[in-house]
Design a protein that fits this description.
By secondary structure, the chain is an alpha+beta fold. It has helices spanning 21-32, 44-47, 100-112, 149-158, 169-177, 182-190; strands at 14-18, 35-41, 57-62, 70-74, 93-96, 119-122, 126-132, 138-144, 165-166. The chain is built from 6 helices and 9 strands, in the order βαβαβββαβββαβαα.
């Protein structure tokens, strides 16, 4: 048993409180391909005891081999915080695509579902798309332009912090269809070639 050296437990899942269990599970199904692995309602009699949970139901969802990646806890009177940016808490959660085509294809698919993009940028280490779920939690979907965690980490350690390059994903899709490789897309994005016609205002959501 190691009692001196810090181990590195991996992030496995997150839990979110919601008053919209059906809407949230459906949104995460549409956007991230998550399916319900377990769902239950908590009987009122159980909630009225001192040992009972404060929520009325829950749903475990996953989009990979793990039994769950997100747990939604339903509390009927839970409300969206209108002043979220001034309060502590979860700022966003991110999901990684394996390829640039997976990221761009996901963007097109989600757009065709009528789900609006909140913000998009090349951070120097990754292309990132940001969305809001029905409870206004920010969900990032990204692709690592360096192709490996190790290389991306070395970049992050050596690069000077700077403002991300805002992008119009439709321009990226067009360039990719014209034959541009992911690294070419990255260098062109940093140069400002794929900037949106009207700049995004991240302060309105972050």
């Amino acid at each position: 048993m190691n009692t001196e050296i810090t181990v590195h437990p991996r992030l496995h899942h997150l839990g979110l409180i919601t008053a919209k269990l059906d809407e949230m599970t459906e949104w995460y199904r549409k956007v991230l391909g998550m399916t319900i692995t377990q769902r239950a309602k908590i009987p009122m009699v159980a909630r009225m005891t001192h040992q009972g949970p404060p929520f009325s139901g829950f749903a475990f969802v996953s989009n990979d081999e793990m039994d769950h990646r997100v747990v939604f806890f339903e509390i009927a009177k839970a409300e969206i915080d209108p002043d979220k940016r001034r309060h502590t808490g979860l700022q966003h959660v991110a999901f990684e695509c394996t390829t640039m085509d997976d990221l761009l294809g996901t963007y097109v698919r989600i757009k065709n579902l009528g789900i609006s993009l909140m913000w998009a940028a090349d951070h120097g280490v990754a292309f990132s798309l940001y969305y809001q779920d029905p409870d206004h939690n920010v969900v990032e979907i990204f692709f690592n332009v360096y192709g490996s965690p190790l290389t991306a980490t070395e970049y992050m350690k050596s690069a000077r912090p700077g403002m991300p390059s805002q992008i119009d994903p439709d321009k990226l899709v067009a360039a990719r269809k014209a034959g541009a490789e992911p690294w070419d897309l990255h260098t062109r994005a940093v140069a400002g070639e794929f900037a949106p016609a009207e700049p995004w205002d991240p302060q309105s959501h972050f």
